[in-house]
Amino acid sequence: MIIVIEGISAAGKTTWCREHAQSHLIRESYPADRREQPETGLATALYWTNWNAKRWGDALAMEEATGHAICDTDPQKLHYNWGMFQLGVLPESQWRLQLETCRAAFAEKRLGFADAYFVKAIDPAIARQQRDGDRSKSRDRFDLNVQLQPSLLRWYTRMGEILAGRVRWGLPETGLSLGSITTNPLRYDISAFDAFIASLDYG
Fold first, then answer.
1. What pLDDT band is residue 88 in, cutting at 50, 70 and 90?
2. Nearest residue to 24 (alpha-carbon basis) of 39, 4, 9, 6
3. pTM for the full model?
4. Average pLDDT over residues 30-36
5. CA 29 – CA 160 distance, rounded (Å)
6. E strand or H helix at 63, and its extent?
7. Nearest partner of 31 among 3, 5, 52, judged by Cα
8. What's the domain of life for this entry (predicted)?
9. If you classify domain 2-199 with CATH, what class do you get?
10. Burial (Cβ within 10 Å: 0-12, 13-18, ≥19) of residue 100
């Protein structure tokens, strides 16, 4: 079983994971040389898809070893590029390249849908307070993250419709009740992936 914890920067994802998921946690992580990569191009799309596939592979290994994995942020991570495109920060051509490489990885079972997603929406003012109170992380793109929240919520709303209720809102205060989560039969269903992408609005 693979479970994803999502929300914008300083929403409380990592704090929740530390408290409730330590022995099953796939930490949020990024490649060390990411700032050296160009912002656009097929090589960049492949670079990020391969990194995301690595995190998915880590989740599969944790699932195999312990029964379930809890991911601090979605290994698929495609919502970030979608949101950047929606804001006009990322050109549509790059969004399309990222989508293409992600879909190929999905078809190869190097990426997939999780069994459950817990997504936390947060008042930006509260997120800002939490950021200011936690200097353990560098959040140099915090303001951009705040702007991305509406598209993030739309993304997981649409996903929840396609995946029949596997998206839940908020982070359970007392931890996960694994008995309420079932295995997702659509983990690698490319038709479900295509239907999800087709359901996204472009406004």
1. very high
2. 4
3. 0.91
4. 91
5. 25
6. helix 42-66
7. 52
8. Bacteria
9. alpha beta
10. middle
